[in-house]
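Forwarding these from the shared drive since the link keeps breaking.
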Amino acid sequence: MSDTKLRILHVIEPTLGGTKRYIEDVFYALENVNNLKLGLIYSLNRSEPSFLLLLEKLRKNGVELFEVPMVRSISPISDLQAALKIRAIIKKFKPNIIHCHSSKAGGLVRLLKLLFQVNNTVKTVYTPNELATSIAWYYGLIETLLLPVTDRLIAVTEAEKKRIIRDLNVTTKKVSVVSPLISAHRFVPQSKEEARKRLNVSQDKFLVIALGRLAHQKRPEIFVDIACRLLQVLPSQVDFLWVGDGPLRHQIEDLIKKKKMDGVLKITGWVSDVRDFIAAADIVVMPSKYESFGYVAAETMAMERVVVVSDVPALQEVVGNKTLVFQNSEEAVEIIIRLLSNTEQLNTIAQELRQSVTQRFSKERMKDSLLNVYCNLLIDKV
């Protein structure tokens, strides 16, 4: 193996949701770059089935894979065991750069550098995928303590960059933006009628959907409230779907029954490919409490459908259209009614959204952004 290759070791704990998607994008963006040797340390304790398929693909592409069990919460014994395994892998792989994804992976690797003096010539890059500082005060303290061994932080949007600078009190130079990519060849406009046939969904009603885990972050109860209010204005004219599954499923199903909406609002469960659902929809709603990026929004835009989002800074940045942003259920209903009452305007906005997203979130752009971060770090090293 050539010693001239740049060796980059990625470390990730949660292999599901947006974090899994981002690491998948990273490897896809870098797959044909010469003189790179890539490695991945991962955990399967919090994963989804599609991650196993990704591992097989990475293995075939020559990525060195290392499984290290990690847990989400702070657990001294488990964390020490994971840290020691990671330390051994670092010694074996001999990376020039370690790129950590999410707070647990970022915490373990940087703690190794701080306490065990793991080869301080190795540069450390940290993509938090949403800082944990809002969860508890001590996460902010941990992040601050680990800043001296953090060579570069990566945000996925300008909005997230601003928050990192504010919450961690770091300089602009310390934080780079590397936005994910959206495959304009995979997420393409499709016939609404054909998608509805495949899904056995009514052709005669409007269809409003939400996609994602049934978890507090996604605020599915807000989607239920929006649906309930919308039906009061457009009775018997709209069907609703939540595409996904999660820990709040039983609670949300009970709420749907309480609202007497179990005939018009359905939960699909986990779906491996959401494209038919997006294609079948008139409008996609994202009522999230927070997002570091918002893949659902970007994919919806790429498929030439309109997405209406909560006033989360990252979602506003991705969508780039203030008329599609709501602060509460009432505003969401007003926006949806306005759009459904003018299909010509709805289609025009959808076309504009696709053009915007395919220009801003390309594979080439992500590759250039990543390589710029890595190369600049090595130049600083010299």
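-- next protein --
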Amino acid sequence: MASKKVQAFTKHQSPWAATWTALRDLFRASQDIPDPDPTINLAGVHIAITGARSGLGAALARQLALQGAQLTLISRQSPLSLAKELSEISQAPCVALSCDLSDLQQVNQLITLLSQGPALNSIVLNAGLMAQSKRRTPQGLEEMFAVHCAANILLMEGLYDAQALVQRQDGALPQVLVTSSEAHRSSPDFSPPGLLDVPDFGMRDGIRWYGYSKLLFLAWVHSFAPDHPEWSIHTLCPGPINSNIAREAPTWVRPFLGPLMRLLFPSPSKAARPLLYHLSTPSDSPHAPTYLHMQAKKEIDRRAQDPKVAQSLNNQLRPLCRALSSPEEPGSSSSSVPDARAGRSSPQEYLPTDRSSEQ
């Protein structure tokens, strides 16, 4: 009989194992938080969402728009068409920003845009990908680690330093919601001195390194939160979702995996319920960070509870972040996305037409 450690490891060691585990979890799910109340009015609440162009992020944005929230949608490919659609639904401003979170220079630019724009009340760190092989980012990091961990750390620290997240008008604390994954429990074991050094991997091991990136950010968040009680921070795994997260699955798997996900996995709008609950019923007093698997409270993996992991991650990322804050050399902005409003390099921003002039 396999040990508990081995059993936990094998849950997400391949796309098929992950799919089977997700299906089993659906039938075992418990509920510690209620369903969200869709009638709660979120007018005057400004929420930013990364990974907002499709899947869970887009479904969450649509429901928030129906409840009147002001939205900033962020994704690698421009969410401009969705922003236009939602600005009509909510009758509140909706901004689209195009930013490749795997490029930390663009993340720095995003922090500037968010800090200089209308005050934010909440941010949902939802962007994600599942790579089937190692790809390096402009800063030399493995791509999943950059998007799921390094970019989110840079965003949270940058927004905190800029005081860009503020209380709501009703006194509710600023919120950070993190879309994580139960796959973090299947991360390979690691040595804290070499956290940025992800080895080459293929499609068989991709989901393990996906879990690695999720585990490291969980460790960092749960270390950051107690020292920043003025923010309300929640991490959660939405469970299996019929989304495009498996868009990089091997070609031979897609004809089977796609229909299986559509048939058996919940829609993104249903999976967004825990996020909607927290956004609709925010806390007005400090609390310890929480982790939800769907709507059930759970402990994170013991490795993510080790403060030495977060400390080591900070120490290894700090030199990279200092280098990013240095002035760029002339002509070095090629990794930036052109701004649609002007000719300069920055994440793309869309501001809907002022309705005061409409008949």
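The radius of gyration is 20 Å. Residues 66 and 311 are 41 Å apart (CA to CA).

- D.
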